[in-house]
């Protein structure tokens, strides 16, 4: 994103401005974890971050803009993909990372708060969609490389494969409440790998 036309709070400055952004985003994260989206009050965020209220209001304007910027930062700070040299290994690494994130005492609560906020606020929903799109783009090359190695059919939609790995995990996290652990992660990755090799995710145009 360039500075010109960028949303308030989403510039990428250095120096003191960067330190202020880091402090404010950390405070917003704490507020989400403790109180949910309703706890993201800009004046309270300024107090937590120990910065001036004017600075926070000028740069972020609304809680929705602040949460959107937090999601941008989360995407930027996320762990990069693991390349093991095999489709099964890469998908397993992806699934285990998702499970570690969702079961983390801090990150799991944060994700639930952000997802809940996204159900009622369009700006937050759009930011959440961008976050997941960023993560899918990060991991999709693993599938493309599997196609090149002959482990998956030509025309496989890499993005759909990555979604297939994490979808059952998020279902457990948000809906069923069933356990999330490495065994579940490995099962999800194995199922996605088998379906991929069988051609389940080959684009219609390639069939």
TrEMBL record:
PANTHER family on file: HTH-TYPE TRANSCRIPTIONAL REGULATOR RUTR, TETR-FAMILY TRANSCRIPTIONAL REGULATOR
DNA-binding residue intervals: 41-60
Protein's UniProt name: TetR-like C-terminal domain-containing protein
Gene3D superfamilies found in the cross-reference section: Homeodomain-like, Tetracycline Repressor, domain 2
Domain (HTH tetR-type) ranges: 18-78
Protein's organism: Actinoallomurus spadix
Keywords: DNA-binding, Transcription, Transcription regulation
Transcription regulation in keyword set: yes
